[in-house]
């Protein structure tokens, strides 16, 4: 009788292991998708670092980059100069620094930096 009990228990365990294998396969697919997201984030961070170095060279900015305020663009404005930041209406911008004139240095969601006139921004 003990041998019969062992055989009976063995078959359901075997079937359960097969189910566990299926579960593992589905969890591996989830892990793979997570790694794809991390890869995209790594590429995005590289691009952001490149934009930051370009910003530091162009504007001769030695200070630490910190966000002073968040502003929303009131209207769309194309860039007239190389150092101007083109903006679209409703775009959210991080204000990095102020200047002596009526311009502020801003960063958009793509990580680009440039001057924006205060008249075109709505501060919260």
From TrEMBL:
It is found in: Membrane raft. One of its GO terms (cellular component) is membrane raft. Keywords: Membrane, Phosphoprotein, SH3 domain. Residues 66-124 form the SH3 domain. InterPro entries: FYB1/2-like, hSH3, SH3-like_dom_sf, SH3_domain. Gene3D superfamilies: SH3 Domains. Its main location: membrane. The keyword Phosphoprotein applies. Interacts with SKAP1, LCK and FYN. The phosphorylated form interacts with LCP2. Adapter protein that plays a role in T-cell receptor (TCR)-mediated activation of signaling pathways. Required for T-cell activation and integrin-mediated T-cell adhesion in response to TCR stimulation. PANTHER family: FYN-BINDING PROTEIN 2, SH2 CONTAINING ADAPTOR PRAM-1 RELATED. This is FYN-binding protein 2. It comes from Struthio camelus australis.
């Amino acid at each position: 009788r003990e041998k019969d009990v062992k055989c009976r228990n063995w078959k359901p365990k075997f079937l359960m292991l097969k189910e566990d294998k299926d579960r593992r396969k589905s969890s591996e697919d989830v892990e793979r998708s997570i790694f794809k997201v991390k890869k995209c984030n790594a590429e995005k961070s590289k691009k952001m670092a490149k934009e930051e170095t370009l910003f530091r060279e162009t504007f001769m900015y030695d200070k630490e980059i910190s966000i002073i305020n968040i502003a929303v663009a009131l209207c769309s404005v194309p860039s007239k100069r190389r150092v101007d930041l083109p903006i679209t209406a409703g775009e959210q911008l991080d204000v990095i620094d102020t200047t002596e004139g009526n311009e502020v240095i801003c960063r958009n969601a793509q990580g680009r930096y440039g001057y924006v006139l205060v008249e075109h921004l709505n501060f919260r």
